[in-house]
Design brief:
Layout lengths: L1 E10 L4 H21 L6 E7 L2 E10 L7 E7 L12 H9 L8 E5 L2 E8 L6 H15 L6 E2 L6 E2 L3 E8 L2 E2 L3 E2 L2 E2 L3 E3 L8 E3 L6 H7 L6 H15 L5 E2 L3 H8 L5 E7 L9 H10 L4 E4 L5 E10 L5 H26 L15 E3 L3 E2 H19 L4 H10 L21 H9 L4 H9 L14 H20 L13 H14 L6 H13 L10 H22 L4 H8 L6 H14 L3 H17 L17 H22 L3 H9 L2 H10 L7 H19 L19
Antiparallel strand pairs: 1-3, 1-9, 2-3, 4-6, 5-6, 7-8, 9-10, 11-12, 13-14, 15-17, 16-18, 17-18, 19-20
């Protein structure tokens, strides 16, 4: 028999970001437990609002299905005598499980025959299972922050105020955190939290909606989108902000959209300032016209009915006006001096304990950016230096400092102040773009100048932290160094920045050494080594996102890491070739070479052609000498597809050599000569990658000679 199960947990308002993860986890944990108990159900449906989360199981079994359990007893030869009569061991075994001798069976276990019983326990009702598992599941739910509010010490994101557990249209009684479950839910606060009786799981959603609670996230979101469209003129467009839309959807139980306005005098400020003022604290949507200029109106979402929306809008207008007045004050005050004059104030701002001030960081960034620009021979050096110099100046502006709501405009507000100070637009863009990407899916810098400063900034941050010994371990990464390294790799790859990694890190360490306030804790060599190991892991993560397998990456990283972009280019070339028959032959051939050379010490360095007595080794050696020159030329030109093609030409000759020449011959001189030749061939391949590390799917096995 099938029924429906509804579980609703009601609480004081929970932060919007907590809701979906918690509901998903509750649903998945309940589902897992039911599957373990062999309680089948057709589907689940989840609901969540700021004051509740709920899971509905449709067509769920009333009882768990009990799978017969096999319990082994004494060996078969000790269970029955020669006449087939049960021995004392067998009868005792059956009796211990309240079974008769006739229930005994003979089966095989680990190659031996044993006496066994099939035991089927009495199945539990689903409602009993729910009562057993729900309290612990709720307590195990993870939230960024938890609290205790009653004497049992139960922890949850916010105090639990009601619990609804309905099964077969009957309320299941249980007690969690001092709250006894019932069939009573509650309506929205703006209507006095009216008590709602839920007698049937199928009517749950309808009862709540009738009382102005829309428990479905998707329905609330759809209502908001539809209502917003009614307020917008044909020339108006809402700012594209899916994150904000999801957040406001989870801030309300019954959304009512309103359109507010603010004085046009505030439009003198950049649109980023206006958007931030509206978004960060008030959760308003900015509105733009068809020319992508911000309008003096906004869209808000209220947790209320439409009855008094005019009064609600008026109140929100007043709140926004106060925030915009603050922003306008900061804007006017900051513009009283050019951005460049703020640089000296950075001396009073600590960048990182043990690494000096933000001013020190700025001076290092100027030096490192200039150095990197010259190495890669790209970008306008004067623009790069000026951009690096001004890159952190906005940290001491009224708009950014002291952790105001505009802190997220770091870099962006610097760009605006730079433009107001008549700096070149290229310089201004560096100030905002050198922070990009801020997170994995974020945009990249748009110019090479911004990219160079961005790379230099990240290298300075990584080297500085590693000099202090502050290296991420496990999940601990307080300074976001993994995110920093990932952004570094993305920029290097996208802008094709070729440079010697060791060289730039050594330069950065030298720049740090010019400061007298750096508290270095590990040696320069150890810093370089640990940083390379750290970046190696980040690179493999980056490549896995690009669907490039670990072994392809390891084949290159094991022999080459000096130039990050160059290593990435080699890896991508190998990845493009994977799957072709010739490439597989090449890998298998190199595997044979590597296997032969493993643990073998070279007896001689030079290859003596006079010792050749096998046509295949003569041909292979000639092929090696023929392509060697072109190979190194192509490598210096970074023409890796052609390099790979030239290596592919070795395939038939390597196969022919192993098929016709015995390497480990009894003739020691010829054996050493052949080993020496194979060492040289492997060394040539290793200039590009260690092909023997690549795993070929369905690889044919070869017996090395």
């Amino acid at each position: 028999m099938k029924s429906e199960l509804l579980i609703e947990i009601g609480f004081e308002e929970i932060p919007a970001s907590y809701l979906k993860p918690a509901t998903d986890k509750l649903s998945s944990k309940l589902s897992s437990h039911f599957k373990e108990k062999h309680v089948d159900f057709k589907e689940t449906k989840i609901f969540f609002t700021p004051r509740r989360l709920a899971v509905l199981f449709r067509e769920i079994d009333n009882y768990e299905k009990k799978i017969p359990k096999i319990i082994y007893g004494p060996p078969a030869d000790r269970s029955f005598d020669d006449t087939g009569k049960a021995t004392a061991a067998a009868t005792g075994f059956a009796k211990s499980y309240n079974k008769a001798v006739k229930d005994l069976k003979i089966g095989e276990k680990k190659g031996k025959k044993f006496c066994y019983l099939e035991i089927v326990e009495k199945p539990k009702r689903t409602e009993l299972i729910v009562k057993e598992i729900l309290p612990s599941i709720l307590e195990e739910l993870n939230f960024p922050k938890k609290m205790k509010w009653e004497e049992s010490g139960f922890e949850f994101a916010r105090p639990i105020r009601w619990i609804v557990v309905l099964f077969c249209k009957q309320s299941i009684k249980l007690k969690i955190a001092g709250v006894t479950s019932s069939n009573k839910s509650f309506g929205p606060r703006f209507l006095g939290s009216k008590k709602l009786i839920i007698n049937d799981t199928s009517s749950y959603e309808k009862i709540l909606e009738k009382n102005f609670v829309i428990p479905s996230f998707e329905k609330r979101k759809k209502k908001i989108i539809n209502d917003i469209s009614k307020y917008l003129k044909s020339s108006e467009k809402l700012i594209d902000d899916p994150g904000l839309l999801n957040e406001v959807t989870n801030l309300v139980e019954y959304p009512s959209v309103f359109k507010g306005k603010f004085d046009k005098e505030f439009l003198v400020m950049p649109s980023d300032v206006l958007v931030t003022a509206m978004r960060e604290h008030q959760r308003y949507f900015a509105v733009f016209n068809e020319n992508k200029k911000i309008e003096s109106v906004y869209i808000g979402v209220s947790n209320s009915l439409n009855d008094n929306i005019k009064e609600i809008t008026k109140g929100h207008n007043n709140v926004l006006k106060a925030r915009l007045n603050d922003a306008l004050f900061y804007w006017k005050e900051d513009l009283k001096q050019p951005l460049v004059e703020m640089i000296d104030e950075l001396k009073g701002v600590e960048w990182h304990r043990g690494l000096g001030t933000v001013f020190d960081k700025t001076i290092r960034l100027v030096k490192l950016s200039r150095f990197l620009s010259k190495i890669v021979n790209r970008g306008k050096v004067d623009v790069i230096e000026r951009g690096a110099l001004l890159s952190k100046a906005d940290l001491v502006t009224n708009m950014i400092k002291d952790g105001k709501e505009f802190t997220k405009l770091e870099g962006i507000i610097g760009r605006e102040y730079a433009l107001q100070s008549n700096e070149k637009r290229e310089v201004a863009e560096i100030i905002s773009e050198h922070y990009l990407p801020r997170f994995p899916q974020d945009a990249l810098p748009s110019t090479i100048e911004s990219a160079i400063v961005g790379v230099s900034d990240r290298i300075d941050t990584l080297v500085g932290n590693f000099l202090l010994g502050e290296i991420p371990t496990g999940s601990v990464d307080p300074f976001g160094l993994r995110r920093c390294a990932y952004g570094l790799v993305r920029i290097i790859d996208e802008f094709k920045l070729r440079f010697d990694f060791n060289g730039i890190v050594k330069k950065c360490i030298w720049v740090f050494s010019q400061q007298n306030n750096v508290s270095k804790k590990i040696s320069n060599d150890e810093t370089i080594q640990k940083l390379k190991e750290f970046l190696h892991i980040r690179l493999k993560t980056y490549l896995s996102i690009l669907k490039i397998s670990y072994d392809t990456a390891d084949a290159v990283f094991s022999v080459y890491f000096d130039d990050i972009y160059d290593a990435l280019e080699r890896i991508k070339t190998l990845n493009d070739e994977r799957g072709s028959e010739n490439f597989e032959r090449l890998v298998i051939g190199q595997r044979r070479v590597a296997n032969i050379l493993r643990g073998v010490k070279i007896g001689q360095k030079q290859v003596n052609e006079s010792l050749f007595d096998c046509k295949a080794e003569t041909t292979l050696w000639k092929k090696y000498n023929k392509i060697k020159g072109d190979f190194f030329k192509l490598m210096t030109q970074h023409k890796y597809k052609k390099v790979n093609k030239s290596l592919l030409t070795f395939c038939p000759h390597i196969d022919n050599f192993f098929d016709n020449c015995l390497v480990m011959t009894d003739d020691v001189r010829r054996k050493n000569n052949r080993i020496s030749m194979l060492y040289k061939i492997k060394a040539l391949f290793d200039e590009f990658a260690d092909f023997s590390m690549i795993v070929i799917e369905g690889e044919r096995t070869n017996k090395d000679k």
